[in-house]
Amino acid sequence: MVKNNYLFFLLLIFVLCELIVFPIGNFPLNDDWSYAKSVLALVNDHKLDLGQWPAMTLLTHVIWGAVFTKVFGFSFFALRLSTIISSLIGILILNKLICRISGNQLTAFIASLVLLLNPFYFNLTNTFMTDVNFNTLLLLAVYFVYDFFETKSKLSFALVFVLSILLVLLRQYGIILPLAFFITCLFLKEKKMLWSLLALMLALITIFILKKYENYLRSILAPGAAYKFSGDMNPTQRVFWDILFENSGIRYSKILFHLLFYSFPFTLFFIVRTDFQFSKKSFIAVFILSFLATYLLFRHDDFQMANVFIHYSVGTETFFETLKGTDDGFSHTYSETFETLALPLKYGFTGLSLSLMVLVILTLVKQNLNPFKNKPELVFLLLLVVGYVFMICITESYFDRYHIPLICLALVFMAYIPIRKKTTIWPVTLSLLLFFYVSVFGTKDYFTLHQKSMEAYDFVKQNKNITNEEINPGFELYNWNEGKQSWWWEFMELTNFNYLIQYDSEPGFKLVKEFEYQRYFPLRKDKINLYEREESLKR
User: What is the pLDDT of residues 487-501, one digit of tens each?
Assistant: First the structure.
């Protein structure tokens, strides 16, 4: 009964979050205009067309979207629905996995909410971006790897193989799964040789399929396409190691900061419910040193990293004025008040999470315990983390949304911490409510913003006899171009546009109409404006 209650509340909270956002609307978000074009090509022309924008393998993602398009017809809402369902699957799988690891329904429930209410994850749940699908497939793979090491189930082994292929055909990062699985099998005590050989075969077949797929892409991709071929990163060349070390030095603190900060509600859950059996002086020393280390390590890292969480808004705002940059360096949604409130949360949440990490390590040392002994699944998780961070550090692009799988793996790792006492979870509830506000209402703002942009776009199309190419409506709508070919870099020049949609005017443009809406994060009235080039300056 308790298990069913937790699942019911989890589903109820998920539905409530989506009802608040109410993500119905036929317009693109972030980069999903590009993936939508690939879905259209597959459904209408029965061919794979990645276009010039995507850098990943993408095939699994396009097929998933095409299934929903076949059922519901093409629309961005149908594509978003596919991601919403994928997101729910991922949350339920994480719940089931952590329940099996910890044997505690409440632990699994809190972990699931930490994922659901992560601002990166929830925002991307309401788009057709690839991040949620990749994360869900990875969580499914981790679950079946765990089941295989627990039961030696042949079905679970086969599913790991299938998921390896699906992952690598969604993103090249997926190659870490079969490689980590193979290496972990070398640590098995029973039938080590058999399972290691089979896992090696799994990894080699996955690599072979990736190479065959990339050979096919070479024959269809246009020159200058953004796709990143796996063979372009060659470890025998010095430039490979230069990129690795340079990126590692820049990105390690951002990765660790996000892991510690966004896992905080789960961290707090363990701090209040775990008996570490240290003296009060030891606890105080750990907390003081952890907060000092937090300041020294992360004082230059903030929440304005890129792509999802920018200047205290959730979701990318990509009007012409936003991408060209503002004079003061702050985006339209910047709030000095929120920045002031966010600073103590940054150090408080991150410092407490680091304290838990230190306490766990000290407990293991004190009790002379090796957590990886007789637990191959922990070896596998560690290899996944190392492999994923390695992939981040050899990748040219880098966004905050890339951290979602690492945050999930951190939650799974923490599930192994034993709980020895019962106490109130009100502090945990309050921290989850804070994440709820930022994630859900920030995403609602993001969605409403694009709804108003679409209204402005439709208004000018319906009232003026003009072509799409005369309107600069923002990065997403311009590049979508109603499914037709577009050249994204032309968006950054206003010379050829007679109509402009954004917050503030540009020289030579006059206001036509305002589209007002209510923001919730930060709380204020806002508006999107439609501008027309002055008559004497029209092209």
Answer: 777 888 888 899 999
State in Å, rounded, how far the first CA of the chain is from the last one: 69
Q: Where are the domains of the chain?
A: 2-445, 446-537
Strand partners, 517: 526
| HEC string for 152-172 | CCHHHHHHHHHHHHHHHCCCH
Which residue is it, tokens 């309050």?
A: 430
Q: What share of the chain is helix, strand, coil (3-state, %, to 5)?
A: 65, 5, 30
Mean pLDDT within 440-469:
92
State pLDDT tens for residues 58-102: 999 999 999 999 999 999 999 999 999 999 999 999 999 999 999
Q: Which of 305, 326, 328, 327 is nearest to 316 (CA)?
A: 305
Helix axes 131-151, 76-102, angle to 10 degrees: 30
Cβ burial 455-472 (10 Å sphere, 16+ → b, else e)? bbbebbbeeeeeeeebbb
Query: Distance of CA 460 to CAs 63, 148, 417, Å?
Result: 34, 58, 58
Distance between CA atoms of 318 and 477, rounded to whole angstroms? 10
Beta strand 499-502 with 313-314 is unpaired
Longest dimension (CA), the chain: 81
> Residue 105 is encoded by which pair of tokens?
């329904």
The whole-number pLDDT of residue 274 equals 87
Q: Are strands 509-520 and 523-533 parallel, antiparallel or unpaired?
A: antiparallel
Residues written for the chain = 539
Letter string b/e over residues 300-314, b meaning 16 or more CB atoms within 10 A of that residue's CB: ebbbebebbbbbbbb
Question: Cα–Cα distance between 118 and 112 in angstroms, integer?
Answer: 10
Amino acid (1-letter code) at residue 317: E
Instruction: Please check whether residue 135 is in contact with residue 91, taking contact to mean a CB–CB distance below 8 angstroms.
Output: no
Burial category of 242 from C-beta neighbours within 10 Å (exposed 0-12, middle 13-18, buried 19 and up): exposed
Residues 462, 475 contacting (CB under 8 angstroms): no
Q: Are 450 and 29 in contact (CB under 8 A)?
A: yes
Q: Which two tokens stand for residue 501?
A: 């949609």
Among candidate residues 416, 276, 270, the one with its CA nearest the CA of residue 353:
270
d(CA 472, CA 491): 7
Condensed to tens digits (0 to 9), the pLDDT of residues 136-167 reads: 999 999 999 999 999 999 999 999 999 999 99
- pTM over 0.90? The answer is yes
Question: Contact 141/160 with Cβ under 8 angstroms?
Answer: yes
Evaluate if residue 535 carries a pLDDT over 80.
no
- What's the gap between Cα 513 and its chain centre? 35
Q: Which has the closest alpha carbon to 297: 239, 347, 349, 343?
A: 347
CA dihedral angle for residue 113, residue 334, residue 347, residue 435, rounded to 10 degrees: -10
